[in-house]
Amino acid sequence: MRLRTVLGLALVLLLVATSSALTQPVSPVVAETLANGLRVLLLEDHRSPIVSFQVWYRVGSRNELRGATGLAHFLEHMMFKGTPTHGPRQFGELVEQHGGQHNAFTSQDVTSYYVNIAATQLGLVIDLEADRMKNLLLDPKDIASEREVVIEERRTRSEDDPGGFLGEEVSSLAFKAHPYGQPIIGWMEDIRRITPEEIRAFYRTYYVPNNAIVVAVGDFRASEALATIKRRFGAIARGPDPPPVLAIEPPQNGERRVTVRKQAQLPIVYLGFHVPDQRSKDAAALEVLSTVLSGGRASRLYRHLVYERQLALDAGGDYSYFSFDPSLFWFWATAMPGQTPDTLERELLAEMERLKAAPVTGEELTRAKNQIESVFVFQEDSVHRRASLLARFELIGGYRGKDQYLEGIRAVTADDLTRVARAWFDFDRKNVGVLVPLP
Amino acid sequence: MGWSIKLRQRVLLTMAVLMMGVVPVSAAPIAHREVLPNGIVLLVAERPTVPIVVARLWTAAGAVQDPPDRAGLANLTGTLLTRGTARRTGPELDAAIEFVGASLEAGAGRDGLTVSLSVLRKDLTLGLDLMAEVVLSPTFPEPEFKRNVAQIQAAIKRSEEDPETVASRALGRLVYPEHPYGIPVEGTTESVARLTRDDVVGFYRSKVRPDTTVIAVVGAVTVAEARREIVARFGAWPVPPGSLPTVPMAAPGAAPAVEVIKRDLTQATILLGRQAVRQTDPDYFPLAVASSILGGGSSSRLYGRVRDEGGLAYSVYSYVVPGRYGASFIVGAQTRTAEVKRVIDVLREEMARMGRQPVSERELALAKSYLIGSFPLRLETSSKVADFIVAVEVQGLGLDYADRYRERVAQVTVPDVERVAARFFAPDTFNRVVVGTVP
After folding, report:
1. What is the pLDDT of residues A266-296, one digit of tens each?
2. Among partner residues A23, A103, A299, which is closest to B13 by beta-carbon distance?
3. Residue A186 falls within a domain, yes or no?
4. The domain spanning residue A396 has which CATH number?
C-alpha cells in the first residue's frame, strides 16, 4: 500500500535534490549567458537516444499580489494554447507526434516546462519553446475555457482534498506579509476574476529571456545545440528586469492555529515553523534533519509514531532547501483510527523536544547523509532529473552549487542538528493546522 | 499541463501510456534470459554507466491467489516479508538497508508479489543478501502481523477520502464481477480483519515458490556476475510440492451496471469501464491505438472536447489495463457537479463516434508515432528497464516484444481502428461509476 505524501512539496524537492558529484567530479556542463540574458546549460549524455529540454522561468506564486493569486499557474496553462505560428493544440500534437512527453509545473518560486523526446527532435523543441516565450496568443476565448479547467484542478487538489485544503490554511496563517502564504494555484475567487489583460501583462513582465534558464541534457552535441538555441532564443529581445519580490516576512509572535472540519476519514496535523533559506549556515543541518526525521522506515518519526507507538498512519518532517526565500519546516502526521489530533500534536512536539535535548546518534547522522548522497547517484540515471537538478542549483546561485551542497551535508554534526532544532522549533512560534474529520 | 507542485502529483498522461503496456524500440535483445534449475527465470540487463543496481523479484503470488474469503492475504504477506527474517527483526532490516542509502520494498499486486531492491553498486552484496533473506526466511512475527493489519485497515479507511480510488474499486467490482480482478488487492477492512498469521504462513509456504518466480537484475552489473550472485542466494531454493492453483481468465460480465456513490465533494469523478483484450490478442494493438486517439494524451479527442474546448475537466483520459488474466478499458473524467450529465454525454458520444466514423489518417499517424516514438523514454532508467522486462516475461510476450509491438502498431489501419472501436467502445457496454454529489 502506497503511503500518501501529504506535502507534495516535500516529494518534489526530494526528487530533485541530487546531483552528479559522485560519478563526475569534473562537470562537463556547457554554460553560457546569451546577449539577451538567457542562461543556457547543456550537458551531453549519450546513453539513450533521448533528450530532456527544459525552460525554467523565475516566476511563481511568489511574484503574485493579493487579489490576483494563481496568475503564474494560469499562465502556465495558457502556454499550451498556441502562438500565431503554432496554433492552439499544436504544441502537444507536434511533441506527441514525435513520441515526446511534455508537461509543466508551477511552484512558489518558478514555472518550469519540459519536453522529453527523441534527441533528433531537439531542433523542433527549441523552436516551439522559443516561439512561446515571445509570441503567445492569449486569446480571451481560450482564457475563458481554460479558466474552467484551472477551477476543476483547484477542486481536485484543494477543495476536495482534505490534506491539500489544510495545507493552504496553515500556509496562509503562517505568512502575513510574504506571498508564500498564497496558494500556488490561487484562491478560487481570484481564478474566477483574473482578466486576460492581467495575464498578458504578467506574461510580458516575466517571460523574458533574461528571466529564464534553458537546460538540456541528452544525446546531442553541445556546440550544435548551443548554436540552435542562440539562433532561436537569441532573436528574442531582452526585457526590462522583472520587479524583485520585496516582501519580508516579519518575525512571528505567538502561536497561530487553525482547525478545519471537513468530510474525511482520519485526522491530520500539520506544524509549520519559519526557517531560513539555503543562504543560511543552518540550511545543510535543516536538510539533514528532515532526512533524520522522515527518510525511510528507520527515520525517527516513522520509527516512533508509526512503528513503535502506532499513533500515526504516516508522519514526516520536511525542509525546502531550494526555496528562494525563507519558508517553513513542516511536520505532519495522519492519525491511526481512534487516535486524536491532540495526541499527534503532543507527540510531534515531544520529538522536537528530544531533538533539542540530546544529539542524534552517529548511526542516524551517517544514515541520513548516506541517503542524501545515494539519491544524487540514483538521479544520474535519468536525463530529465539531471536537467532538473542543474536548473534547481542554477536558480539558487549556480549549477556548480551541488558540489558545495554535498560538502555542506557532509560537514553537518550531531551538535548542529541540536542547535538548529533549538534555534528554529520555538513552540511559541508554531503554526498549527488540525483537520477534524466529519462523517 | 498545469500542475502546481504544491500538492500531490498525479501523472495521468504518463500513467495512461504506461498502462497500455507499450515498449521500447531496440534491435539488440533487451536482456539476457536463462532458467535456473529450480525454475527461476533470470533476466539481466547491463547498464554500466551509473553505479547503481536495481533488482526485482516477481513471484506469481498476487491477489489472484487469495482464497475467496481471504481478500488482502497476498498483500499482507508481501508487506510482512520485510518485517522480520530468521536473522533480523523488521527494524534491523530497515536500519541495514537504509544505512547505505538503499531501499528494499515488498508488496503484492493483482498478478504477483514483488520485492524491489535499489542499491548503490558498492553495496550490492549487502542488498542481495537482504533481498534473499526476506524472500527465503521471513518469520512473520505476531506483533508485526498485528501492526500491519491495523495499518492496512487504516490505509483502506483513508483511501475512502480519495474519489478516484473509491471509483476504481467500485468499477473493478462491476467490470470483473466473477473474477479475482474485481476484488481490491488490499482487501476490505472486514476481509483483512479475518486474516490470521497462520493464513499468511500458509500462503507464503505454498505460493511463494521458485518455479513461478522471475528475477531481474539491471544496472552496473555483468551477466556473469548477476548469475553468480543470484545462483549463490536463490539456486538452492527448493521447489515445494504441488503447484499454484490455476487462475481462470476473466470472462465477460453480466449486463453493465451503473453505480452512484455519494460524497460531499465539489467535483464528481466519472469512470466508465468494461473488459477488453490483452497483448496476445491481435486486436490489442488496434485497441491501444484507438484508445490513444480517443483519450491518450493532450492531442486526443476527449482532451480536445472535454478539456480544451469545453473547459469541463482538468483530468480526462482513456487507457487499456492489460493483466495476465484479462484486460479492461477505462474512460474517465472529473468535473463539477453541475456538468456530470453533460460530460457523460460527451464521453459516450465520442466513444460511439469512434466506432461509427473512420478516424482521420492524420489522427491515426499521430497516435501511432506517439506510441512508437515514446518507447525509448520508457526504458530510460534501470528501474524502468527492470519493470519492463519483468512485465514482458510475466505476460508471456517474449523479449522481442518491443520490436514486435512497434511493427504491430505500425500496421494498424483506419479500418482496424473502426473495427475495434465498434467492438470495444459501444457506450452501452460500459459499466459506470460516479462518485460525488450527483444532482
Report:
1. 999 999 999 999 999 999 999 999 999 999 9
2. A103
3. yes
4. 3.30.830.10
Nearest CA in chain A to B220: A381
CA distance B45 to B219: 7
Q: Do A264 and B375 touch (CB under 8 A)?
A: no
Return d(Cα A370, Cα A367) in angstroms, integer. 5
pLDDT in tens, A307-365: 999 999 999 999 999 999 999 999 999 999 999 999 999 999 999 999 999 999 999 99
Together in a domain, A322 and A391: yes
- Nearest CB neighbour to B98, from listed A153, A266, A298: A298
A169 and A303 both lie in a single domain: no
How many Å lie between the alpha carbon of A424 and the closest alpha carbon of chain B? 23
Determine, yes or no, domain membership for A248.
no
My answer on whether A300 and A385 are in the same domain is yes
Q: Is the domain of A205 the same as that of A285?
A: no
Least Cα distance to B223 among B29, B393, B375, B404 occurs for B29
The ipTM assigned to this model is 0.91
Window A:383-402, CB contacts with B under 8 Å:
383-384
| 3-class SS letters over A320-346 | CCCCCCCCEEEEEEEECCCCCHHHHHH
CB contacts of B220 in chain A (<8 Å) are none
Binary contact (A103, B8; C-beta < 8 A): no
Please give the backbone phi and psi of residue B281, each rounded to the nearest 5 degrees, phi first.
-90, 135
pLDDT tens track for A75-89: 999 999 999 999 988
Nearest CA in chain A to B298: A92
Cα atoms in the Cβ-side hemisphere of radius 13 Å centred on A326: 20
Residues A155 and A266 in one domain: no
* Environment class of B170 (CB within 10 Å of its CB; exposed 0-12, middle 13-18, buried 19+): buried
Same-domain check for residues A195 and A278: no
A177 touches chain B (CB under 8 A): no
Please answer yes or no on whether B4 and A147 come within 8 Å at the CB atom.
no
Number of structural domains, chain A? 2
- Indicate if A264 and A203 belong to the same structural domain: no
For chain B, domains (ranges, CATH) are: 39-234 (3.30.830.10), 258-436 (3.30.830.10)
Task: Give the domain range for residue A204.
Answer: 36-233
